[in-house]
Amino acid sequence: MSNHLADSHSEITLGLLKAVQEDEKLTQRSAASDLGIALGLVNTYLKRCVKKSFIKIRQVPRNRYAYYLTPQGFAEKSRLTAEYLSQSLSLFRQSKDQYRENYLQCVKNGWTRIAFYGASDLCEIAALCAQEFPIEVAAIIQKGAAAKASTRLPIVETIAEAGTIDAIILTDLIDPQHSFNTLVEEFPNSRVLTPKFLEVSRTLPTLKK
Hints:
Blueprint: H1 3-22, H2 28-35, H3 39-51, E1 55-60, E2 64-69, H4 71-109, E3 113-117, H5 122-130, E4 136-141, E5 155-156, E6 167-170, H6 176-183, E7 192-193
Parallel strand pairs: 3-4, 3-6, 4-5, 6-7
Antiparallel strand pairs: 1-2
Helix pairs in contact: 1-4, 2-3, 4-5
């Protein structure tokens, strides 16, 4: 199992265990809505958790079912929570160091006004690091502008709306490669900065004739 799939598996399992603990009257449909996944996937993970004795099911009146955590379920939820926090702290340290490298590059090149691209939790980390440098963060650029970031920076939909900027720093966690590819169509490649942990390829593939 790849790291991405393993992370996704752990995240869904943890979310389901938390949902069951918080609400014994939980339905599969409400769990699917809360977790943002398909109903069939909830059913699959519930069966796995029952098979592993993390969750017990009992029938209640009106042909409904109640779900509750077993001692093994509480232990697994605790383990997954600790694992998630460990990964989050690791991501925080790694992203903080690499965004600092991006800012040092900005200072070296005399770039003082920048924007973030992608409204995500990374914006808060990147904004925090920016305070250590003589740099102004003008805005967060987010296509559609529906997403919200946990900073007080304005969110705009286009590069033009961000005003005059010297560089753009990638903060997209959903599809950073696509965001980079889109960005360099409108903005100089050398002025789009990407932290290494996002694993963005800066060389766009060319089709062979």
